[in-house]
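One such given next:

>
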Amino acid sequence: MIKVIGGEFRGRNLLSVPGESTRPPLARVRAAVANILAGYVEGASVLDLFAGTGSYSIELISRGARSATCIDKNPRAVETIRKNVSSLGIQDRVRLINGDALRVMGLLEKEGLRFEIVLVAPPYFTELDQRAMDLLGKSTLVDPAGIVILQQHRREKMEEKWGHLSLRKTYSYGDTRISTYLPDFPDSA
């Protein structure tokens, strides 16, 4: 059972996605990410590209994020997020999209959306991390004052720069590596 670690919904249980295809982040990794994002969370809009259970987004909303857009191509994952969000009464703060995150990114950009926090935590060793970061580095989805969190296996390829996104810091938790990227384009971009 997954539990919300901090904030308004601390201690509340979240459902996991049935089956083996979705790997929810470990509690210590979620706690670490929430701590890394502490200065960005209040009032932020979150983009969760490979949302799985929605635990990252829910954790951030619990700690003060304004809203989250959760994308996952697995219908069971989207239904799990829907149930988790409903159990907490935050349906009006979470937009769920059942689709390919890489394709949906282009649609969100066409809508003119920008996010203060972008979470990229795809399944390991699928190269989705590389493809998503490549697209993000060319897009306007990341707010100029925003941050991108990339979760990878420690043996996956890491880059110092993805377009206008530059590596700020890397953290290790067992086999999991968390990297933070900041946009380096001017506010007028």
Q: What stands out?
A: The chain has one domain: 2-183. The chain has a mean pLDDT of 92. Residues 28 and 109 are 32 Å apart (CA to CA). Residues 2-183 form a domain with the Rossmann fold fold (CATH 3.40.50.150).
